[in-house]
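Cross-posting from the chemistry board since nobody answered there.

I work mostly on the small-molecule side, so proteins are not my area. We synthesized pyridoxal-5'-phosphate and want a rough idea of how it might sit in this target. Sequence and SMILES are below. Is it possible to get a predicted 3D structure of the two together?
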Amino acid sequence: MPEIKFYKHEPIPLEMHKVKIVQQLKLLPVDERLKKMKEAGFNTFQLHNGDIFMDMLTDSGVNAMSDEMLAGMMKPDDAYAGSETFYRMRDKLEEIFGIKYFLPAHQGRACENILASFYVKPDNCVIMNYHFTTAKAHITRLGGRVEELVKEEGLISKSNLPFKGDIDLDAVKACIEKETPENVPFIRIEAGTNLIGGQPISYANMKAVTELAKSYGIPTVLDASLLQDNLYFIKMREEGMKDKSIREITRMIADLYDIIYFSGRKFGFARGGGILVREESLYHAMEDLIPMFEGFLTYGGMSVREMEALTVGFDESMEMDVISQGPQFIDYCVRKLDEYGVPVITPGGGLGAHLDAMQFVSHIPQDQYPAGALVCALYICGGIRGMERGTLSEERNADGSERFASMELVRMALPRRVFTLSQTEYVIDRVKWLYDHRELVGGLRFVHEPKTLRFFTGILEATSDWPEKLAAAYKADFGEDQ
Ligand SMILES: Cc1ncc(COP(=O)(O)O)c(C=O)c1O
């Protein structure tokens, strides 16, 4: 979206689309929400969508599709093998990324499974700017380790650094020397670094780290799931980039990597995924994993309708008017909360606005999951569903002790083209109320704790009657019916 100037109004983000189909929402009264939260075991993944007013859990697979994407879904070529839909998708990806070989997969974590299965051996060390939950789980499942080498300043929540996802090049070099290059199967760079607040990585840093990897003969992998946000930030914030088109920047980035994978639930605004492989021999070496885990090589577990939608979605991901909407809404939300004194990750990144729970509820010890508790409080106080991105999203150390996350975040995702500015204002308002009543929020403990990816299916309870007290304070201010 270009900077639209207003005559008598402060600048606000302006949607460059109109709404054609709507889904009715309902706002349960606060007592009902308290009950639903208990039934969900204080885990927002366990809530039913019908009980939620603002679903800000994720942007994954819930972005609004365009009329062109829906129209694309009407012309799929349904075939087990050799579907024309697949070739259209593959050709579009080649046009955008300049990489010829494409392995389809049903979503991002499936790509991570394929890559880990192919590359990772016990005790291997995969270097990353920062991990993503499923990327790490597939590596550790196979006995590998992950080294996260994002620059230290990327983990400082309040900052004005434009590229907090940048990797520390000296640390990468030292790590390769210590591990030996043979023990580093690949270096994974994540665009729009999810778990540290959707923070971008600069082109310059990507160039430097991929050159370093090349000098050691280590393959480089880009997780492009959040690339569209990262592209926007490179164009807006990086020196020498503002006059380049999104397509040009995309190609410059793609040229750096041996492999690029993505979740189509994010990149492409529909549902699917895949791996782009530069070298023909590498593509053939990996290809048999697709029919084994995903589906035949011309669909990889995706429906042909979704593939057609993605093919249009890739093109839309190259349009500034489309990809700027998320970051601009997030920036608006972050600025308003920051002005009020609410601890948020600054500057605003992609994906969503992130509350810094370590500061927001600083009285809750880390082993009582401050971000997990805060995200539950947010649902009770407004019907807003966010996602915990902190210690709950980690797995325990081998000796059973907690592995404390370096950041305790509550993510309020802004799926693209879904929410209006007035809905965003409602969220800002309820977060301000919660901040003013933050001392009422208490901790959580596990009742049922799965070993892997426990944040998805774990069941917890409150350590005291704080949820009831919080609901009572909310009712006193807003009444019973809100
Ligand atoms: C950066 C990143 N990589 C990988 C994934 C996994 O993708 P999927 O949810 O499609 O399995 C996600 C999902 O949120 C992500 O944000």
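Reply from a structural biologist on the board:
Welcome over. Reading the output above for you: Residues 97 and 254 are 6 Å apart (CA to CA). The two ends are 34 Å apart (CA to CA). Happy to explain the token format if needed.
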